[in-house]
Inverse folding.
């Protein structure tokens, strides 16, 4: 018993984590706390690593992307093609990714067991199921917390979700609003990021200075983490407003825009690259309409080539900028699609044997992990669930998957206790 | 045994070991407790002051009257005082003015709404759906906390005055594990979810037997269309992480168990008949009949029986204490167990006894809590080392709830005078939900995000709802005043509910003069800076 008790209130890691969690002390905007933060940043520093998540909402088919089964009764009409890694083949709908497979690892052995859009989306964004009374943060919030800086002048979790399908499953859970997503659901420009017309730039800054004066007066003799976060939030306003230009794709050279292409998805991915380049640790770009219960093959014939082109362009662009070694690009859905083809020529929800891909930062490129059987009915090698996938993602970004957060006095590790990352996927 | 008169028997000798862990909660310090006739506020001051003495702590000074009025208005009515309320309170020489203010606030319709809302927030705890219909009525009729508890757990809406009471169960009945834990957290201050998969790793009190014991009381409850029904049979079986599958007892958190009468499993015939009945109820949209032996009713009897009602009384006392003092006597609020004792065990015991002895009367407890000297301390500490939250030697900053923010921001932008104020305030409060929804519900270690600061800075909504122009609007009233100093004074009274210091007056007047080209805009900027200040954002 004693041993256990020590574990939950005596650990020195607890102090550090907690201090970080609370931000700096109220008086902490000035010198003293910057010092404290520098000390912390040694623990915090993950060398500007970030992640772009290409979220294929509705459930992309593994057969028409990363785990083709041409010739099998379940295989559908498309062939497979050779990738740049000898012996590894992916769907013919992805020629560009096949050609630049060197930075990508495909996992073909996900068995996540949940085929319901809502709860499976939560599972694949959080790496585990919520408890009765504990809402877990999603990976965006975790990465915002782990890779972001408290005083950051850019957002640390941006989520594009312009289609109406399958929203509202992300969130910062017990980490709270500070690490919640900046959700872009109506346009690619965040809400309230532009200065309104009714106030001039000078007046805008003057009234902020006046506010900061009241804040300074109020902070005398008062110390509170929440108070510090309030001040921090207002200090970040100018920087975040300045990051407005990052969301404006017209600031990008026409040549680069042409490379990505004119689609909405392509523009959002380009914005994601701009954001990551400026220090945003996590961006999710949601691309909907993969839920192909009918006309699965037409759907994928339309969506997969776009994904192929945009993803390959993104990886090359990141590589050209020297950013790929620090940027992890992941394609993920809430689940895959059934081997069986239904009477509407569709594929239904299937979570027992499906695929995702990881590219770039910390990943062993040009490789495949796991295997499904001939028809793609089940995993025959290297089966993993959401927890191990998350541990692998965190590890690739230099984060200890067993690091604890504290909810009250209770230690809550980033991934379920004892979860091991998949070594074979990591560089 | 006659099943009509004796429906079940209490088995008190069960789990002796576990019982031992619970004893310290009630027994320690019993003999030196203050007498029951002491007032709540005196008891609070007595126990807290004694702990300062023991720790050689110097408390903060008393908060200024205007700060106290703002605090108590937010706590009781969910809103800041109007400028004229604040001014007349500051000028009032009546030594009983604080007691009078408390009485006035508690009698206001805003108090009922605020109280119902606060209770709804901790009962629903992030679960979708609401209970405001039932709670508003229950609070308005001054129903006691044990009665509200009973009505929520029995969920019997055949009595029209309990309409909406079943929503707590209905929103959770599809997930019995969640229901079990949420009942334990909301009514007993105990989070048993860890004990779902294994005996609690940190707390000897919670075994899997407790989790599944509590779950047993709800396992017979199910949904029929829009109604709740309860079966006459059914037990919970679980696989302990050591040993073979076992059947859970109907066990309360204290380890006490009961056995429902007639625990026989139904025959195939009976099951078939039941299925038909359920279809029938569904089709006709009728309320299924009440069971003869409700296991939920058994839980109520156990949880409220003398000697076992400690959890129930203490959990609510701790909730209310946390709300007004910004930090529970036990923290976290859902960890009320023997290894996490209260910071002030005697005070907790006294308050729980007082609450139980006085019929779980909510307004009485609330009034007592806000009447203490400890409640009235300043949130600023001038001494050298700042006391800990659990010392209660200074007032704690409490971030405003979404509703407090919405109502108070809209109120701050108004210029209200004369007799119609009360009505106006009520109107404004009713229209504040949309603005309130822009803010996040505070949690422990709450962190305010940049989205909120961007909302203040750039949204049209903030500008229109809080800084509008026209009749009864502060911007317009302010601009009409003759001197910048007068304008500064009105701005600070209206937004921060206090008089401006001479420094503040000078700064604001200077700002208004500098930006005087457009007086309205300059006033708006000053008001914005005050509304966006931490002094406004917190109940301090």
């Amino acid at each position: 018993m004693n041993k256990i008790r020590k574990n939950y209130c005596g650990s020195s890691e607890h102090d550090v984590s907690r201090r970080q969690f609370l931000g700096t002390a109220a008086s902490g905007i000035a010198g003293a706390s910057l010092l404290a933060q520098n000390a912390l940043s040694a623990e915090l520093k993950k060398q500007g690593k970030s992640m772009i998540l290409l979220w294929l909402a509705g459930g992309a088919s593994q057969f028409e992307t990363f785990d083709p089964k041409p010739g099998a009764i379940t295989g559908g009409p498309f062939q497979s093609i050779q990738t740049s890694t000898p012996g590894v083949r992916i769907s013919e709908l992805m020629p560009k990714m096949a050609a630049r497979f060197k930075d990508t690892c495909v996992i073909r052995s996900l068995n996540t067991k949940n085929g319901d859009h809502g709860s499976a989306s939560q599972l694949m964004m959080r790496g585990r199921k919520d408890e009765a009374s504990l809402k877990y943060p999603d990976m965006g919030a975790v990465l915002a917390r782990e890779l972001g800086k408290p005083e950051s002048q850019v957002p640390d979790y941006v989520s594009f979700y312009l289609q109406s399908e399958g929203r509202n499953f992300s969130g910062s859970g017990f980490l709270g609003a500070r690490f919640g997503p900046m959700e872009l659901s109506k346009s690619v420009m965040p809400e309230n990021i532009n200065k309104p017309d009714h106030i001039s730039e000078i007046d805008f800054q003057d009234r902020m200075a006046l506010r900061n004066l009241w804040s300074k007066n109020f902070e005398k003799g008062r110390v509170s983490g929440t108070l510090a976060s309030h001040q921090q939030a207002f200090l970040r306003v100018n920087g975040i407003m300045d990051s407005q230009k990052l969301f404006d794709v017209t600031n990008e050279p026409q040549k680069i825009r042409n490379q990505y292409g004119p689609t909405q998805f392509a523009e959002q991915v380009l914005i994601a690259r701009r954001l990551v380049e400026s220090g945003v640790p996590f961006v999710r770009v949601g691309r909907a309409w993969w839920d192909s219960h009918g006309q699965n093959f037409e759907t994928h014939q339309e969506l997969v080539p776009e994904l192929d082109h945009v993803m390959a362009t993104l990886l090359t662009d990141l590589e050209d900028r020297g950013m790929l070694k620090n940027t992890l690009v992941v394609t993920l859905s809430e689940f895959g699609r059934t081997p069986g083809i239904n009477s509407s020529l569709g594929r239904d929800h299937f979570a027992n044997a499906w695929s995702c891909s990881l590219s770039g930062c910390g990943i062993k490129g040009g490789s495949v992990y796991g295997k499904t059987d001939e028809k793609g009915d089940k995993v025959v090698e290297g089966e993993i669930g959401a927890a191990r996938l998350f541990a692998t993602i965190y590890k690739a970004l230099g984060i200890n998957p067993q690091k604890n957060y504290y909810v009250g006095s209770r230690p809550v590790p980033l991934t379920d206790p004892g979860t091991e990352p998949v070594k074979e996927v990591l560089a | 045994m006659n099943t009509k008169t004796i429906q079940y028997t209490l088995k008190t000798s069960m789990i002796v070991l576990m019982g031992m862990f619970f004893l310290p909660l009630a027994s320690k310090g019993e003999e030196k407790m203050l007498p029951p006739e002491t007032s709540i506020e005196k008891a609070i001051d007595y126990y807290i002051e004694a702990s300062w003495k023991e720790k050689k702590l110097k408390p903060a000074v008393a908060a200024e009257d205007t700060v106290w009025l703002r605090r108590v208005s937010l706590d009781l009515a969910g809103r800041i005082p109007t400028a004229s309320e604040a001014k007349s309170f500051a000028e009032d020489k009546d030594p009983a003015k604080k007691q009078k203010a408390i009485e006035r606030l508690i009698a206001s319709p805003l108090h009922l709404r605020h109280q119902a809302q606060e209770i709804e927030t901790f009962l629903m705890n992030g679960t979708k759906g609401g209970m405001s219909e039932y709670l508003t009525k229950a609070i308005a009729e001054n129903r006691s906390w044990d009665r509200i508890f009973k009505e929520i757990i029995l969920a019997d809406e055949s009595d029209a005055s309990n309409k909406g009471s079943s929503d707590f169960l209905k929103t959770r009945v599809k997930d019995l594990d969640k229901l079990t834990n949420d009942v334990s957290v909301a009514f007993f201050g105990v989070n048993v979810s860890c004990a779902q998969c294994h005996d609690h790793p940190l707390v000897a009190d919670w075994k899997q037997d407790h989790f599944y014991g509590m779950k047993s009381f709800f396992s017979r409850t199910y949904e029929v269309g829009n109604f709740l029904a309860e079966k006459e049979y059914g037990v919970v079986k679980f696989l302990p992480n050591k040993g073979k599958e076992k059947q859970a007892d109907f066990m309360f958190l204290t380890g006490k168990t009961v056995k429902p009468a007639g625990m026989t499993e139904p025959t195939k015939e009976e099951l078939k008949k039941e299925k038909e009945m359920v279809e029938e109820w569904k089709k006709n949209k009728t309320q299924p009949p009440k069971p003869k032996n409700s296991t939920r009713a058994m839980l109520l009897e156990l949880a409220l029986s003398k000697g076992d009602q400690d959890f129930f009384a203490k959990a609510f006392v701790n909730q209310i204490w946390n709300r007004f003092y910004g930090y529970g006597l036990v923290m976290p609020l859902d960890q009320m167990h023997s290894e996490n004792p209260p910071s002030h065990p005697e005070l907790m015991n006294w308050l729980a006894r007082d609450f139980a002895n006085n019929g779980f009367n909510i307004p009485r407890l609330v009034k007592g809590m806000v009447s203490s000297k400890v409640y009235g301390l300043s949130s600023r500490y001038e001494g050298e080392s700042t006391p800990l939250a659990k010392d209660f030697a200074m007032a704690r900053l409490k971030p405003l709830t979404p509703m407090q923010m919405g109502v108070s921001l809209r109120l701050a932008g108004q210029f209200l005078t004369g007799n119609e104020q009360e009505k106006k305030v009520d109107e404004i409060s009713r229209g504040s939900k949309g603005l309130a929804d822009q803010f996040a519900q505070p949690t422990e270690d709450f962190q305010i995000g940049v989205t909120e600061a961007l909302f203040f800075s750039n949204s049209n909504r903030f500008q229109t709802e809080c800084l509008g122009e026209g009749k009864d609007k502060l911007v317009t009233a302010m601009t009409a005043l003759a001197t910048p100093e007068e304008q500064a004074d009105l701005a600070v009274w209206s937004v921060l509910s206090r008089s401006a210091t001479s420094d503040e007056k000078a700064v604001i007047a200077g700002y208004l003069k500098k930006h005087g080209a457009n007086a309205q805009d300059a006033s708006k900027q000053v008001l914005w800076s005050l509304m966006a200040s931490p002094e406004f954002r917190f109940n301090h």
Q: What stands out?
A: Residues 296-320 of chain A form the longest helix (25 residues). Confidence is low (pLDDT under 50) at residues 1-45 of chain A.
